[in-house]
Design a protein that fits this description.
heterodimer, A: mainly beta, seven-stranded mixed sheet, four-stranded antiparallel sheet, 11 strands, about 0% helix, globular, B: mainly beta, six-stranded mixed sheet, five-stranded antiparallel sheet, about 55% strand
């Protein structure tokens, strides 16, 4: 039982390049989330999904796209990376109706955009 | 959007000392949560609070849900070196989305 895993752990991009971050969970959770963490700002919600095939915008969605083709996977895409997207990205998952108390986070992906 | 003000931003304390941190908000929440993040890892839930006035302990950790539903505090008693990390508060009002504080960085001198 691996919980929530993220791929890759580290990545360096040049401005304008694209990439996809992969999140996988093996807990059969309905809800999945992508957050970014920046110094002094805590965690901010980028996009989330309440089930396979559905996605919704969070607090800071601009410049990102997501897809939830399979229940266990949630992909975060950057079509044209910008230096402002340098951050640590966390994926999380939870069952519905648990008010966040059962939210499990992955280990994070550290992204640097030059 | 909703904002959580978490203080202090950082603490550097002696091993054995007690630690206190808090979160305040201009909005009410139905649930308050406290997470700990260690280097290179994602946040891990420490304590969840569901009712105004609730006081809950988890080992050396004690947290309270403020009566006004706009604040919460976390205390750590007799700190040890493995307490180092970043502590986040989070509030939940509806749906399954959380609002996070900016975090308190805790360093412990042994």
């Amino acid at each position: 039982n691996a919980g929530v895993t993220q791929t890759p752990k580290f990545r360096v991009l040049k401005t304008g390049q694209s990439m996809t971050l992969l999140c996988a969970q093996d807990m059969n959770h309905e809800y999945m989330y992508w957050y970014r963490q920046d110094p002094g700002m805590g965690l901010r919600l980028i996009h989330y999904s309440v089930g396979e095939g559905t996605t919704a915008k969070g607090e800071v969605p601009d410049g990102y796209n997501v897809s939830r083709l399979k229940k266990q996977n949630f992909l975060l895409g950057l079509e044209s990376a910008a230096p402002s997207q340098t951050s640590v990205y966390f994926c999380a998952s939870s069952p519905p109706g648990t008010s966040g108390r059962a939210m499990f986070f992955g280990p994070g992906t550290r992204l640097t955009v030059l | 959007g909703q904002q959580l003000n978490q203080s202090p931003q950082s603490m550097f304390i002696q091993e054995g000392e007690d630690v206190s941190m808090n979160c305040t908000s201009s909005s009410i929440f139905n649930t308050w949560l406290w997470y700990k993040q260690e280097p290179g890892e994602g946040p891990v839930l420490l304590i969840a609070l569901y009712k105004a006035g609730e006081l809950t302990s988890n080992g050396r950790l004690t947290a309270q849900f403020g009566i006004t539903r706009k604040d919460s505090f976390l205390n750590i008693s007799a700190s040890i070196p493995s307490d180092v990390g970043i502590y986040f508060c989070a509030g939940h009002l509806y749906g399954n989305k959380l609002v996070f504080g900016a975090g308190t960085i805790l360093r412990v001198k042994s």
